[in-house]
Each structure stands twice: as structure tokens, then as C-alpha cells.
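Morning, I've got a small favour to ask if you have a moment. I owe you a coffee for this, so here goes:

…
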Amino acid sequence: MRKLKHENKKRVNLRLEPSLITALRRVADREGVAYQKMIRQWLWEKVKKKAEGT
């Protein structure tokens, strides 16, 4: 995974199904990263793709 630039974080609340959280945690465990960090990375990747028009 790409290393994220260190900057201050702002808390957001997001309601997710417990089964989705469990699945996210499993993927993160297999990848060897914290699940919140992985979610942040995935969000950045998606936003970057949309910003590039792909």
C-alpha cells in the first residue's frame, strides 16, 4: 500500500453494516495493515481515479 502523507486527521462518523466491518478487518489483517488505514487508502485511490477522469 502507498504510504499516506502525514497530516492532521478529522474524525467522521460513518454507519456501516457489521458484516462489512468484519470483512474489512479480515482483508486488512491479511494485508498486515490497520483496517482504518486501509479504508483511507482505498478512499484516496478512488478519489484520485475520479479526479483523473477514469
Remarks:
- The helical segments are 18-31, 35-52.
